[in-house]
Amino acid sequence: MTTGDELLLLAIRPGRRRIRIRAEDRLRFALRASELADLGLAGRIAVGPRRIEVMDSQRVEDRRLNNVLHSLGATAPPPSLKDWLRRTPRSLTTEYLSRLEDQKAVRVRRWRDASGRTRHDILSVDLPRRQALLARLDGVVRSGSAISTADHDLTLAALVQAAGLAPAAYPGLRGITDRRRLATLVANDRLTPATAEADPAADEELAAALATGADVLTRQLLGELSDLYADFTTGGHSLGHDLDPGSWSEGGTGHHGGGHGDGGHGSW
């Protein structure tokens, strides 16, 4: 799974009556950011103050990320981080939902409403796979130590917080402590203690770990996402979301675009 796949799987929260995607108004932008994070961690791109630079154009294993890399390299002039995120297609969440379906992580039913728009019902989610992903997130949020913590997991935790997915990962009253830990983890310029009882030496190690490697790009992504969310909510205007897969973004394969099915409940 890419970081985007994992982000969406964490956003899908089973409920008593419906399986819903949490924070979908923010999610598509965070998914777009996750692609840059994956390419950055793979050494394929560097995000500068004015542009995203392709450092290595060799193919990556994941088809979508490879298409995103090609699109970045073909864009002239090279895009800035701000412009790239703000051009996030409305279809992106739907595209990632199709990816999870291809990986047998979810089952989805598609149908068309009276206006002809394709709607989606998530019928089931692979709970063991989601739980394993939550266990990895716990390793970042609860450990209080950077030992054996991959840059990938630190970046995932930061994007979960940025996208407003903490309530989906740690719901209800039982999740309050972990939500606070996650917020603390990404709130400052350095990685603060994940627990009040953390050893000072471990705290220093955490700070050093986030000051290098994944931190530079992660902080850039967090800052730009924060600005983007603020811009789109100024003056009472929310981050509009539209899961109509009528157009596919850079990296998309275009499958799963048609509607089928016969029901009409639980649409989004």
Word description of this protein:
This protein has 268 residues and is mainly alpha-helical. Helix content is 49%, strand content 10%. The chain is built from 11 helices and 6 strands. It has helices spanning 3-11, 24-41, 63-74, 81-86, 92-102, 127-141, 151-162, 166-169, 176-187, 200-211, 214-233; strands spanning 12-14, 19-21, 45-47, 52-54, 106-112, 118-125.
Short summary:
This protein has helices at 3-11, 24-41, 63-74, 81-86, 92-102, 127-141, 151-162, 166-169, 176-187, 200-211, 214-233, and strands at residues 12-14, 19-21, 45-47, 52-54, 106-112, 118-125.
- Rounded mean pLDDT is 77
The H-and-E topology, N to C, reads as HEEHEEHHHEEHHHHHH
Strand order of the largest sheet: 1-2
Number of strands: 6
Helical residues, percent:
40-55%
Low-confidence stretches: 189-213, 234-250, 252-268
Contiguous helical run count: 11
Content of β-strand:
5-15%
How far the N terminus sits from the C terminus, by CA atoms, comes to 24 Å
Q: Helix/strand/pairing class, anyone?
A: mainly alpha
The Rg value, from CA coordinates, equals 19 Å
C-alpha geometry:
globular
Q: How would a textbook summarize the main sheet?
A: 2 strands, antiparallel
Secondary-structure blueprint:
Elements: H1 3-11, E1 12-14, E2 19-21, H2 24-41, E3 45-47, E4 52-54, H3 63-74, H4 81-86, H5 92-102, E5 106-112, E6 118-125, H6 127-141, H7 151-162, H8 166-169, H9 176-187, H10 200-211, H11 214-233
Considering the chains and any ligands shown, give keywords for the structure.
single chain, mainly alpha, 49% helix, 6 strands, two-stranded antiparallel ribbon, 268 residues, 11 helices, globular
